[in-house]
Amino acid sequence: MTMARGFRKPSVLPGFGLTFGFTTFFLSALVLLPLAALVLKASAVSWPEFVSILLDERSVASYRLSFGAAFLAAIVNAVFGFIVAWSLVRYDFPGRRLVDAFIDLPFAMPTAVSGIALATVFSPSGWLGQKLALAGVQVAYTWLGVVVALILIGLPFVVRSVQPALVEVQRDLEDAAETLGARPWQVFLRIILPAVLPALLTGFTLAFARGIGEYGSVVFISGNLPMKTEITPLLIVIKLEQYDYNGAAALGFIMLVMSFVMLFTINLVQAWGRRRQAGMGR
Amino acid sequence: MAGAAPRTEVRALSRGAHVTRAVLIGTSIAFLGLLLVAPLGAILAQAFAKGWQVYLGSFSDDDTRAAIRLTLLTAAIVVPINTVFGICAAWAIAKFEFKGKSLLITFIDLPFAVSPVIAGLVFVLMFGAQGWFGPWLQERDIQIIFAVPGIVLATLFISFPYVARELIPLMQQQGSDEEEAAITLGASAWVTFLRVTLPKIRWGLLYGVILCNARAMGEFGAVSVVSGHIRGLTNTMPLHVEILYNEYNFVAAFAVASLLALLAILTLVLKSLVEWRSGRTVS
């Protein structure tokens, strides 16, 4: 079957014009046009002003926090998310299905609710905050709080990416390796990890990408001190509240570019995973 | 004697595996308990800190009621529109082959990749007082930003991909043989959709609608940017939670938050039910 030369391959099914037309119209009006408005607004800002907004001390501090905290949180999630996914796939224990359903809670929970709940738990007078304070660690209103919020938000991405990959791992390879005298850590490093690595990386990147843009769950626990605990999305909101539209558009543009870079990275990781899988299947 | 050595080794190994199992499950439960259950517990503890009476009393406040109404109204507008969009997009993408299809799918996913704050910002730049259409709208006395239409637009944007995303892979996997048969036998397009396609996709559709609704009711960042936070007028439930919390009115803040948490739990329960009905195990 070769592709017809036209725009679309002929089909007996009706409704292409209507559904395709509505889809592209709605998508353009609601998503593409507004995003284009942001790009236009940012490009209307003069170059020196644009650079001075982006390289402003306060902006740079916010990038460092947003990216640093999102990266740290994604690493913690890669480790613990893997352990959780492993426990859910490989072991049967009472309440396993309940735990499995609970993993999606951060997706379903409004971010503001997660935010005030975390701030309460980790505040110096909160359940966990009190105990951590005894150990001299303060989480709420420090950069650590931002990391904790982003761990919560990113967790489902890692678990849900790794779970199906773990199901696919060939158990007979593990058994063979064990029979041939491989130690458990060798089986893990040489057989299991290579098989789930693309999925783990995908989950890591998804969690990282989400963490960079996250707002609601962070602003309550972070304390929002300029230069210290101010994430980039919050800085955009502050600039908007001060009617500094150029500043908001310039920072928004940079974040939009980052989103595209992350989307591109995720696609690369997934394509790499598919190639690897095809190679291993042979 | 010769046979004893391997047996001990097997037993030692299985004991090791047993310990590993216990440690890994324990770590998982502890991690999830700390991260998911403790905050959930905190919401309930704070909401009921002063007893049932005060908890229920929080909902008799006019502003709180207005916030609940606005959230319900927004979801009632946004969810049907995005459901129709999702079905249309899935039909066009899954049933036909055309150029640029993967680009279209990437574009549909865009709202997931963009920060919620950006989702609000773009509408301020379009319809705000200094925005592209700002002067035109002002002349005609139409207010979108800091008003309900802006909230609806931002929510539409942010919950845009959910239904389409559930339906596209499902309909691609199901193929279109049955639809083609129905059409060839003379069924109209509408009847084919209602009698052939809809029964096949109903669980996936329901799943997408549930997720779309949860996001529409719970959105904070995007709505926060466009709302203007006018009490009783442009405050949705999540925004009202923020205001009450910042006013140290913790019982009321967590009472409203507990409603949203209930919505989240309900969403998870429905989601599990749908997964169970449609025979899916891992989403």
Describe the model.
- The complex is a heterodimer of chains A (282) and B (283).
- With 282 residues, chain A is mainly alpha-helical.
- Chain A is built from 13 helices and no strands.
- Chain A is globular and about 65 Å long.
- The two termini of chain A are 25 Å apart.
- Chain B is mostly helical.
- The N terminus of chain B is likely disordered.
- The interface between A and B is large, with 93 and 97 residues.
Give the full name of the CATH homologous superfamily of chain A: MetI-like
What is the N-to-C order of secondary-structure elements of chain B (H for helix, E for strand)? Answer: HHHHHHHHHHHHH
Tell me the domain tally of chain A. 1
Q: Regarding CATH, which class of the largest domain in chain B? A: Mainly Alpha
CATH architecture of the largest domain in chain B: Orthogonal Bundle
What is the strand tally of chain A? 0
Number of strands of chain B: 0
Number of domains of chain B: 2
Tell me the β content of chain A. under 5%
Structural class of chain A: mainly alpha
Shape of chain A from CA axes? globular
CATH architecture of chain A: Orthogonal Bundle
Quaternary organization: heterodimer
Q: What is the CATH homology-level superfamily of the largest domain in chain B?
A: MetI-like
Please give the count of helices of chain A. Answer: 13
